[in-house]
Design goal:
Elements lengths: L15 H9 L16 H12 L3 H5 L9 H12 L7 H18 L11 E4 L2 H30 L2 H7 L3 H26 L15 E4 L1 H7 L7 H21 L3 H14 L1 E4 L1 H9 L7 H12 L6 E4 L3 H25 L6 H14 L3 H9 L8 H15 L1 H6 L10 H5 L1 H34 L16
Parallel strand pairs: 1-2
Antiparallel strand pairs: 3-4
Helix pairs in contact: 4-6, 4-8, 5-10, 6-8, 6-11, 8-16, 10-14, 11-14, 14-17, 17-20
C-alpha cells in the first residue's frame, strides 16, 4: 500500500536525510517540516509564511476550504502547464474526421453502440478544466479520510495540544495536498492524448476528446503517418467512451471502489514508536543521544498507510485491466487489416503505459492509491478467447452486469471463465429447444381430431 502520505512526492531535492528529519516532526503528517532539517517552530512558521504569500484568495475562496485546496491546485497546475497554443481549426477538423472514421470501423468489431455526443479537440488547459470535476470526485474521499486517519494516528497528548490549532493545521494540510495535486495534474495535462487517456473516465460522459498538439509530440518517435496515429488514438478513445456511455454501472463502480478504499484508511505508526523506545533517548547521556540520532538517519520512519478495504484496490486493478484489454482487442480487430501500422502503434501504446501513461501511475500521483499494474495483456487474451468461444455479441453482453464480469483469478485462468460461458450457452440452448418442443406439442394437441378439448370436432360433442 501507499507509504507516502497522500501518494504525492515532496518535490525535487527531497533526499532521504530530509525525509527522515521530516518524519520526526510531529507536524510532518500535515506536510510541514523545517527547511534546514531542524524542524523548529521558526522554520515551520517561515515555511507556512511562504505558502501563504500570494495565496490569500485561494485560501479564502470556497474551493480553498476542505481537505484539498482545489483553488490552489488549479492555479499551480495552470502555472505548470504554461503558455498553450489555442487549438487550430484544421486540428479540430482532423480530430472530427479521425473520430468519424474510427467509429465507422469500430462498428464492425463491437456490438456496443457509438457513444454519440460531441467530438472535440483540446489543448492541455482544456484537459485540466474539463477533467477536474471528476478528479475532485476521486481525490476528495481519500483526502478526507486521510486527514481523519492522520489525526487518529497522533498520541492523545498531541491531539489535545493541537486542539486550538486544529483548524489552522487542517488548512495547512489542505494547502499541502493542493500543491501536490496541482503539480501532478499539470504534469498529466502535458502527457494526456485523450480525455480518458489513462483508462479513467475523467472526461465528461458526452465528450470524445483528443489533444492534437500532445499527439503530434508523442508521434515524433514513431515512423507512422500522423493521420494514421490520429485515427488509432481516436479509435481507442471512442471505444472507451462506448463503454462509459452504454455500461451504466461502470463509472460508478470505479468511483465507489475509490470511496470504499478511502473509508478504510489506517495510518500505522507503531513501528516508529517502537524504534524510538529502543533508542533510549530518556537516558540523558549526550553520547547515547548522538548515537541515537545517527541511527535515526538510517531508519524508515514513514507512516505505514493501508486500508481495511484492500479488496477495493483489487477490484480497481481488475476493472481497469478489463476496460483497457477490451479497448485494445476491439481496436486491433477494427483497424488491423485496414491500417498495417496498427501493431506498431499498439506496441508503442503498451510501452507508454509501462513508462508513465497508465492508470495506476495516475492514481498514485493524483488520487493517492497505489496498486499493481493492471493485467492488460492478460485481459486482451481473455477477450480474444471469449470472442472465439462465444462470438462478438455474447462477448460484449458480458458488460451488461458487474456480476457477469471475469474475476481477478479468471484473468490468469481464462479457461475457467470461458467454460462457464459455454456451460451457460449449452443451458440456454437446451431451454430454447425444450420450449420449442413444448410449443410444438401444444399445437399438435390443439389440432388432434380426437382431442376432447377441440370444440370444432363434432365427434366430441355430447349427444
Amino acid at each position: 500500500m501507499n507509504t507516502g502520505g497522500f501518494g504525492f512526492s515532496f518535490g525535487p531535492g527531497d533526499d532521504d536525510d530530509d525525509k527522515s528529519r521530516r518524519d520526526q516532526n510531529p507536524f510532518g503528517a500535515f506536510g510541514f517540516g523545517g527547511a534546514d532539517g531542524s524542524g523548529g517552530l521558526g522554520d515551520m512558521l517561515s515555511q507556512f509564511g511562504q505558502m501563504l504569500s500570494g495565496m490569500g484568495s485561494s485560501m479564502n475562496s470556497p474551493e480553498g476550504q476542505g481537505p484539498v485546496n482545489y483553488a490552489l491546485a488549479e492555479r499551480i497546475a495552470r502555472q505548470q502547464i504554461g503558455q498553450v497554443t489555442p487549438v487550430r481549426d484544421q486540428d479540430r477538423t482532423a480530430v472530427e474526421e479521425a473520430a468519424r472514421l474510427a467509429d465507422l470501423w469500430l462498428d464492425d468489431a463491437t456490438q456496443m453502440p457509438t457513444a454519440g455526443g460531441r467530438v472535440v479537440a483540446w489543448n492541455a488547459e482544456d484537459w485540466l478544466t474539463q477533467t477536474l470535476p471528476m478528479w475532485k470526485r476521486l481525490v476528495s474521499p481519500v483526502a478526507e479520510h486521510m486527514a481523519d486517519a492522520q489525526l487518529a494516528s497522533l498520541p492523545e497528548e498531541a491531539r489535545e495540544m493541537m486542539g486550538p490549532m486544529l483548524q489552522m493545521m487542517n488548512q495547512m494540510s489542505g494547502m499541502n495536498f493542493g500543491m501536490q495535486l496541482g503539480n501532478a495534474l499539470g504534469d498529466l495535462a502535458k502527457q494526456a492524448l485523450t480525455g480518458s487517456d489513462f483508462g479513467l473516465p475523467v472526461a465528461p460522459t458526452d465528450v470524445t476528446a483528443l489533444l492534437p498538439a500532445n499527439i503530434t509530440a508523442a508521434g515524433k518517435e514513431l515512423t507512422v503517418a500522423g493521420q494514421e496515429l490520429m485515427v488509432y488514438i481516436a479509435a481507442r478513445e471512442s471505444a472507451r467512451q462506448r463503454l462509459y456511455r452504454h455500461v451504466p454501472w461502470l463509472v460508478e463502480r470505479l468511483v465507489s471502489s475509490v470511496e470504499e478504499y478511502a473509508a478504510g484508511l489506517v495510518i500505522d505508526t507503531s513501528h516508529i514508536e517502537e524504534a524510538t523506545r529502543e533508542l533510549n533517548l530518556e537516558s540523558g547521556d549526550p553520547a547515547a543521544i548522538q548515537d541515537a540520532m545517527q541511527r535515526l538517519q538510517g531508519m524508515d520512519l514513514s507512516p505505514r498507510i493501508s486500508s481495511r478495504n484492500a479488496q477495493a484496490v483489487s477490484r480497481l486493478e481488475t476493472l481497469l485491466a478489463l476496460v483497457e484489454g477490451w479497448v485494445e482487442y476491439v481496436v486491433d480487430r477494427a483497424m488491423g487489416e485496414r491500417i498495417p501500422s496498427t501493431p506498431v502503434m499498439t506496441e508503442a501504446w503498451r510501452r507508454r503505459r509501462a513508462t508513465g501513461g497508465s492508470a495506476e501511475q495516475a492514481f498514485a500521483k493524483i488520487v493517492g492509491i497505489e496498486f499493481a499494474a493492471p493485467k492488460v495483456a492478460e485481459a486482451v487474451e481473455l477477450w480474444r478467447r471469449v470472442d472465439v468461444a462465444v462470438g462478438q455479441e455474447r462477448r460484449d453482453g458480458i458488460w451488461e452486469h458487474p456480476d457477469l464480469m471475469p474475476s481477478a483469478e479468471q484473468l490468469d485462468n481464462s479457461a475457467d471463465f470461458i467454460d462457464g460461458l459455454l456451460g451457460e450457452g449449452d443451458s440456454d440452448e437446451f431451454d430454447r429447444e425444450f420450449a420449442k418442443l413444448e410449443e410444438m406439442l401444444r399445437e399438435q394437441e390443439g389440432k388432434d381430431p380426437e382431442s376432447p378439448e377441440d370444440p370444432e370436432n363434432p365427434d366430441n360433442r355430447e349427444k
